[in-house]
Design brief:
about 0% strand, 6 helices, about 60% helix, globular, about 150 residues, mainly alpha
């Protein structure tokens, strides 16, 4: 599938998602669910914010971190966040004693899925564009050493 997210839109969304992840335990009342539901979005949000500041793209401020590695880490962190309610078991705590479906796992699943999709389908992503030309030239197949 072709990438459909531009790098500028990706950069802005990355800041929004990072700040939302950092604030999500208080925004979505995840404080009393479990420690994984509380701390995991905060950690991933801070990592996303630091990577966004240091990434070498239009919205990065310091421009030292390679974009392709950022996209790869987005896919990994998005998958971890997407699966965390099921791994740590707080997805099953969504039905409380009152029997009302609260859906406490939905913010982490949605934000994790969004990170996963952004890492996969942004232009210049290693998952859709392959290796850059500079990596394919001059490696083992080079005849310079003969």
């Amino acid at each position: 599938m072709k990438p459909f997210i531009s790098t500028a839109v990706y950069g802005v969304l990355n800041y929004i998602i990072a700040l939302t992840l950092i604030a999500s335990p208080w925004l979505f009342d995840l404080r009393s669910i479990s420690s994984a539901a509380f701390f995991l979005p905060i950690y991933i949000g801070w990592l996303q914010l630091i990577m966004a500041i240091f990434t070498n793209n239009e919205t990065g401020f310091i421009k030292q971190f390679p974009v392709r590695i950022h996209y790869t880490l987005d896919v990994v962190m998005g998958f971890i966040l997407l699966m965390s309610p099921f791994i740590y078991g707080f997805a099953f705590d969504s039905v409380r004693a009152a029997g009302v479906f609260k859906g406490v796992f939905l913010p982490e699943v949605l934000l994790g899925g969004l990170l996963f999709i952004m890492g996969l389908f942004t232009k210049k992503s290693p998952f859709t564009s392959g290796l850059p030309k500079t990596h394919a030239e001059g490696l083992i197949g080079s005849t310079d050493s003969i």
